[in-house]
Every structure is written in structure tokens, then in C-alpha cells.
Write a structure and sequence with these properties.
CATH class: Alpha Beta
Helix content: 25-40%
Bound molecules: zinc ion
Number of strands: 11
Strand content: 15-25%
CATH topology: Aminopeptidase
Structural class: alpha/beta
Order of helices and strands: HHHHEEEEHEHEEHEEEHEH
CATH superfamily: Zn peptidases
Number of domains: 1
Mean pLDDT: 93
Length: 340
């Protein structure tokens, strides 16, 4: 027993030093993001039971209730001022000439040091519903992949909070509705922001990250990044550094130029991706964005965009890249700077 004080001293030092390591190593939390959990979420979220998740329909109601239940089970609170998860709105689907009621889903982790500064991570919760012949558009890639990625990123940050290593800045996990009808839910949010846009430091938007496009069949370890250096060089540099340190994907920037052509629906057109998903509603408000995207494929907007075609190991890797980028943006000393 005479060595007990020495043993206690040793244990004390070991505990302190291991806690310190945890505090500065986001990899501890990135490992909670797994292909298996992404797959389990997606086999629910992109199942027939979700009826193709068209905004304003029963399918949307099923989707938003699923997201809410997942955040409740993670112990992450709603992002509305009263703590609710749902942001209700009446939208005008100008393409169909009708109005309908719909909801964004907001979940929120408050920052420990700079709670007023907020990072927004988005994916669109809706898809294109059911075909006239009854086939369901499950949208496993578009954008089931983005929604389940956010759930796993949120879980990782929540684990960090539990360990006393929560993000210094606040994070809003924002699942937007009505994207497929014209970026409507993200426009509603930026027109009616819950957190001031001038305090919104960046938007990371995830829309289709579970597949491989025709250009990368031989080299599938990639992701397209769009917009990263348009408003903030800091954002671009942080993103590239996190990729080098932790993930090592090929970051393909070819669509940063909106005039780069893509083959879509039988013809070549200018890609214009910078304007075509929800990040644009943040970018137009001078908020730096990155759009994470795997490119289109033959199942784009078709009932064949299904869960068994998703590359889950790649989805995990891409999700980890977004997590590490979010971690750095939320924890770095300086807020991301805009270009002059
Ligand atoms: Zn999409």
C-alpha cells in the first residue's frame, strides 16, 4: 500500500493529459461518424415509407418528424427561439402555381465562447415525391445523403459537448424544405433568419454526397467543392487544410466556374451549380459557402436513386471532411474573413 500516493499521482497526471488530448483532437469525435450508422439512417430516410418527401405533402411530415425524433434522442434542442424544431411557412410553388404549407427543421448547439457567431450546416429535407405511375422517388443520394450526414455530424458535436469540448461558436443544423420546387425553404430562412445573417460566419451545404459520377469511375476518392474561395479565401484554405490533415479526398473544383459544361438530360449545359442549391441563398447575403456535391448520375431525379446504390464508405469519408471543416470554423480564434 505504500505506493498508493504515487499511483494516485500517476493516475491524476494520466487523466489530465488524456483530457487535454481529447480537447484538441477532433478525430476523437470524427470516429463517431460511421458508414454503418449513415446506412442505418438512410435505409429509413430514403425508404418507400417516406413517400418521396415532397414538400407540403404527407411525405414531408414523415421526414420532419423523423429528423425531430433523431435530434431529441441525441439530446440536441430545437433551433427556433422557443426551442421548437419546426419552422413553419407558407410557400408559393411558382413552377406549379400553387401555395402550400411546409416546414424547415432546425437543431442547435450553442457555442461555449462566441455563442452569437453561428455556422449553418444545410441539406434539403424534401425530394420530388411520387411519379404519376405510382413509383416513389426515394432520393437516397438527393438528398437523403445530406440529411443523414448532418445527423452524424450533429451526433459528433454533441459527444464533444458532453466531454466539455463543445464548439466555441454556435452551430445550426438546418434541414430545409422546398429545394426541389426552387430553393424555397432556404430562401424563407434567409428572408426570416432566426439568427442574424451578419453573425452567420459560413454555410456548409450538402446536396448529394453518396455516389460516384461518370467522370470519377476510375478515381472515386473525390468530392466536388463549389464556392469555397468565392467570398472568403480563409474558408477555402481551412477546407483544404482539414482535407490534408484528416481525410485526403481529391477536392475537385472544376464547377467553381459556373460556365464549366456538364452533360444533363441528354445535352451539354453550363453547370451553374453555385446558383442551384440552398447555399446560394446564403451566398447572395455575402455569407461564405461551400457546396459539397458528387455530381449528377443516371439516377438523378429518378425513382432509381435508391439506397443500395450509395457508396457508404465514401459517404463516411465525405461526411468526415465536412465535420472537420465545421469543427475548425467553429473553434478557430478568428472568424472567417471575407475577401476585400
Ligand atoms: Zn438536391
Amino acid at each position: 500500500m505504500k505506493h498508493l500516493p504515487l499511483l494516485l499521482a500517476f493516475l491524476f497526471v494520466a487523466c489530465v493529459s488524456s483530457q487535454k488530448n481529447i480537447a484538441f483532437d477532433p478525430e476523437t469525435y470524427a470516429t463517431t461518424i460511421t458508414a454503418q450508422e449513415l446506412k442505418e439512417h438512410l435505409y429509413t430516410y430514403a425508404s418507400d415509407a417516406f413517400l418521396g418527401r415532397e414538400a407540403g405533402t404527407e411525405g414531408e411530415t414523415i421526414a420532419i418528424n423523423y429528423l425531430k425524433a433523431e435530434y431529441e434522442s441525441l439530446g440536441i434542442k430545437g433551433g427556433m427561439p422557443n426551442g421548437d424544431y419546426f419552422m413553419p411557412m407558407t410557400l408559393n410553388a411558382y413552377r406549379e402555381n400553387k401555395t402550400f404549407d411546409a416546414n424547415n427543421v432546425l437543431a442547435y448547439i450553442e457555442g461555449s465562447e462566441k455563442p452569437d457567431e453561428i455556422l449553418v450546416i444545410t441539406a434539403h429535407l424534401d425530394h420530388i415525391g411520387i411519379e404519376a405511375d405510382g413509383q416513389i422517388n426515394n432520393g437516397a443520394d438527393d438528398d437523403g445523403s445530406g440529411n443523414v450526414a448532418i445527423l452524424e455530424i450533429a451526433e459528433a458535436f454533441k459527444q464533444a459537448v458532453k466531454d466539455g469540448n463543445g464548439p466555441k461558436r454556435s452551430i445550426l443544423f438546418l434541414h430545409v424544405t422546398g429545394e426541389e420546387k426552387g430553393l424555397l425553404g432556404s430562401k424563407y430562412y434567409t428572408d426570416n433568419p432566426v439568427y442574424p445573417l451578419e453573425h452567420t460566419v459560413a454555410n456548409l451545404n450538402i446536396d448529394m454526397i453518396g455516389r460516384i459520377d461518370a467522370l470519377h469511375e476510375e478515381k472515386p476518392n473525390y468530392i466536388y467543392l463549389i464556392g469555397s474561395d468565392i467570398l472568403s479565401q480563409d474558408l477555402h484554405d481551412v477546407s483544404a487544410a482539414m482535407n490534408d490533415s484528416y481525410v485526403n479526398l481529391e477536392l475537385d473544383y472544376r464547377y467553381n466556374d459556373p460556365t464549366t459544361e456538364v452533360f444533363e438530360r441528354g445535352r451539354y449545359i453550363e453547370n451553374r451549380y453555385y446558383y442551384r442549391s440552398d447555399h446560394y441563398n446564403f451566398a447572395k447575403n455575402n455569407i461564405p459557402v461551400i457546396f459539397y456535391f458528387n455530381g449528377t448520375h443516371e439516377d438523378y431525379h429518378a425513382p432509381t436513386d435508391t439506397v443500395e446504390k450509395i457508396e457508404y464508405d465514401l459517404l463516411e469519408k465525405r461526411t468526415k471532411l465536412i465535420f472537420h471543416t465545421a469543427w475548425e470554423i467553429a473553434n478557430r480564434d478568428e472568424r472567417l474573413k471575407l475577401k476585400e
